[in-house]
Amino acid sequence: MSSTRQGPGDVSPGPRPASVTVEELQARYAEVNPLVNAVCTPNPAALTEAVRLDAERDDGRVRGPLHGLPVLVKDNIDTADLPTTAGSLALADQPPPPHDAPLVRRLREAGCIVLGKTNLSEWANFRGSASSSGWSAFGGLTRNPYALNRSAGGSSSGSGAAVAAGMAELAIGTETNGSIVCPAALNGVVGLKPTVGLIPQQGIVPISHSQDTAGPMTRTVSQAAALLTVLTGGATDYLQSCRGEDLSDLRIGVPRGPLWGYSTGLDRVSEEALELLSRCGATLVDHLSLPTPGGDEDQLHVLSHELKVDLTAYLATRKPGGPRTLAELIAFNQQHADVELRYFGQELFERAEGTEGLGSPVYVAARLAALRAGRDGIDGLLRENQLDALVMPSYSPAWTIDLINGDHVLGSSSSHAALAGYPLLTVPSGLVEGLPVGITFSGTGRSDDTLIRLAHAFETARIKVHGPFPTPEFRQWV
Q1: 129 annotated active-site
Q2: Is 179 a known active-site residue?
Q3: Torsion-angle region of 39 (φ positive above 0: left; ψ -120 to 50: alpha; else: beta)
Q4: What is the model's pTM?
Q5: Average pLDDT estimate for 287-306
Q6: Which terminus of the chain faces fewer neighbouring Cβ atoms within 10 Å, N or C?
Q7: Rounded CA gap, 156 and 340, in Å?
């Protein structure tokens, strides 16, 4: 296993046959997936698809820069040829969905090869409040390849761990609040949560239509930009935003409160990241503060109300024979409590089942409060200080896995953007005692291109100074 990995570069596979790449990745899967358990369902047809795409290339039919590139897809995104379980035994024995999710269809049309499905925190980490990220009844426990006894984060655990472990360069995750940027930061990869609505939500097992989105998880920022171009339909070429290190025309805010100060090592690496951004010419406006993003009850009201409505609508798209309502899922979990409820409960499901629909005054008030807390906080800070974006530490270093007591998260960067439906982009910034950490760029709605530009410039500058980011050694961390 190598000690470094490549930096930002061309996402094109060039003349290298896709079939050779797939065979190598399948061999890598056999070697390291038993250690990290990131991929729950490999695609048995991946090599056949690669051969077909090689033939297209040989005939001069190249679909674009992602032609022939393998991609892993989180197991809450519909694939017509592979099961979609959301990590639950309730969907494990059901037929695959009748259609690809629109984003999967776009991937295939661009020439991507679906290499398999990645494990996740069951139901995208919205079932029980004491959950452990990376665990699902269907897929088991995903581990962090940098420290096998530490968390891979959630809920896109498998996507982050698989990219870090070298089982694919490209993966798709989903985020409601931190579920892309958390595992990306903990596993030392790039994670891009786009503005909500840029990527179609259809065919994704939902929590909340106001906060859910899919997004790229990749080795490099340029790969994430190329994937975002495909996932959003191609109207904007986000690769054009990867244009060097010069940030002299940009002003970046540094909101210290409440996003710093919970991890000494993380703060140290993040200060070094600020210095690199300053060397790139960016104007840093320091010592700002974001308001606390509202009460937890408002956020829970929104997610609970939307889950009941959105999940029922999703289940209606699946073939008959499986659960059709949230109440049926709750009953299934009770009937299979020895596995499904072994480590944590389903009180969030039960809370959602007790809601009264999207016309409820409780929901309407909570939704407005959450939206204001997210958007007013971010947009107000940007406007008052004439900023193009914000930068902050991503997440605390990976915590020790504790299936009995659940996660031990010290701090994060995702809540304001989650409430607002705004984009986030996390990029590796360094190591704390051998554990990856990242910095996150945040901005207003549809500022995805600006965040890509910032992240690519930082990534390029960091590699020049520190070299390629080290690859994991698959060891226990003491």
Answers
A1: no
A2: yes
A3: beta
A4: 0.97
A5: 90
A6: C
A7: 19
